[in-house]
């Protein structure tokens, strides 16, 4: 959804995909699939909207483009009340616009690679002819017009856009250089749900893992696809919730009306936790990860790393003098560095300085939270790999103790997809179970 660019192509992308999936990029999946989140970790990445003060600090009002269609984004149309985020559309004259909309982008970064994010929401009433959108993209959080620096090719996941209120309308894009010329759409899918989704709350989710994207309606698998660009499944992204003008002129008599969001939740796939502490990191050839002249390298003499586990299940690694292992994205380069630490715009978590530590049979692999790409070893250099590179495997030994072994710990596994029991489970409010939510309204 990039300023003028995203809006000029998106409607066509969705409408052409409504009857079938783009050949080579995905397929419709059997109607009895499901996701079971047993064993997954619910992260402190998201919002329950029970604390308006906290919620106000978690969401940036407005997007990197000032209006959508005939509606001007207005910060005053965003509110937090009664345990929900409410995005309003109004028929009111401001400047040359006869309507005002609202939108928010999260300050927090949702990791990719092995996560499931879910939004429970009630779309703005269909009679108003205003599109409700749930999507993932990352801007500089400064009002535009730029997307986030260093986050090329700016992958975008459109989880739901109400081009048709009886379908879950899904699409994927990348926006290299944030221009229409370089924009690429990989198509999508329109999953029929059999009801007007604006009449009740429903859950909309996307699982990004194992090189695949899996989209869910009320935790029922709506579409599974092999993404056209790997960044779509591995890179961290902001959550975006917005009202858009892609349906044409709103119906003034049906306004004001609101798009109501009950929660945004993120889960991390099963991965044995590593306790925070001081560790040595040993490579497969017996050498140690050390910091030398601001860069990570392999040497025969060990160096201690302070490993800290964060509430998003990623880790930070720092030297005894406080230098942080991170990714430098300046000037378009992606280099693994050791330094003072880099923040991702106003993302206080600092995704450039955090790492997935994924457990395998012989150790752990490190993948950047920001890019999802692995750390690899080239001679004595420790660098960020590219898609397809085998990640370097590390044995972590807590200093003064025996190695922290993961030989018996499985790597993240695919969640169970069993046939759900049909019920009206999605209409219950926020007390949904962490495991399977039964299908409804289909």
Automatic annotation (TrEMBL):
Q: Where is this region: Disordered?
A: 400-442
The answer to whether UniProt assigns keyword Hydrolase to this entry is yes
Q: Which UniProt keywords apply?
A: Hydrolase
Look up keyword RNA-binding and say if it applies.
Answer: no
A GO molecular function assigned to this protein is: hydrolase activity
Source domain of life: Bacteria
Q: Which SUPFAM superfamilies match?
A: Concanavalin A-like lectins/glucanases (SSF49899)
User: Which is an annotated Pfam family here?
Assistant: Glyco_hydro_16
Q: Where is the composition biased (Low complexity)?
A: 401-418
Q: The GH16 domain covers which part of the protein?
A: 38-272
Q: Which family does it belong to?
A: Belongs to the glycosyl hydrolase 16 family.
Official protein name in the record = Glycoside hydrolase family 16 protein
